């Protein structure tokens, strides 16, 4: 039976290094987890950009179809043509559904590195929960590796996305890939 363990052992020296950069164990764990979450975000974002690039024509067509049908439905609504409004709005909703599903699929692509990172964190820290300096309601005074990684990953993802969106080149690239620059 194949296992991820040989791969996790192979990448272990690269992943464990940030955990050893700070001498207090808790600070090293938090820094290492932040770096690991950043690796996951970068690799996932590059993968999502690749998927958007290869599907950019389809994404543009969906966006154009949504925009066109939305504008037509508004026009029909202003003219008081309820039948045309319902027909065009139904088509706009279909296009929105396809676009929403595609967006969900691209999001799933962007988080594919997380299970591998969690497998590695499990291998290393399953028996060593993060000890907190205070007792938190519902958590106690320690946090399991899964909860700590997930919370830090979400924070890293939100901050990284906010920072990247401030760069004009990145924003322009995303607009071009999703067809929202026209």
Features:
membrane; two-stranded antiparallel ribbon; 182 residues; single chain; mainly alpha
* Estimated structural class: mainly alpha
Give the overall average pLDDT: 88
Global Rg:
22 Å
Poorly predicted regions: none
H/E topology pattern: HHHHHEEHH
Biggest sheet layout? 2 strands, antiparallel
In percent, how helical is the residue content?
A: over 70%
The number of E-state strands comes to 2
Our count of helices gives: 7
Beta-strand percentage range: 5-15%
Work out the count of structural domains. Answer: 1
Major sheet strand order:
1-2
Question: Could you explain how this protein is built, in words?
Answer:
- The protein is mainly α.
- It has one domain (4-178).
- Helix content is 77%, strand content 6%.
- The chain contains 7 helices and 2 strands.
- The protein has helices at 5-16, 25-54, 56-79, 82-110, 113-125, 145-165, 168-178; strands spanning 130-136, 140-143.
- The protein has a two-stranded antiparallel ribbon with strand order 1-2.
- A hairpin with a 3-residue loop joins strand 1 (130-136) and strand 2 (140-143).
- The longest helix is centred in the first third of the chain and has 30 residues, at 25-54.
- The chain is elongated and about 70 Å long.
- The termini are far apart.
- Keywords: Membrane, Transmembrane, Transmembrane helix.
- The chain crosses the membrane at residues 26-51, 95-123, 143-164.
- This is DUF106 domain-containing protein.
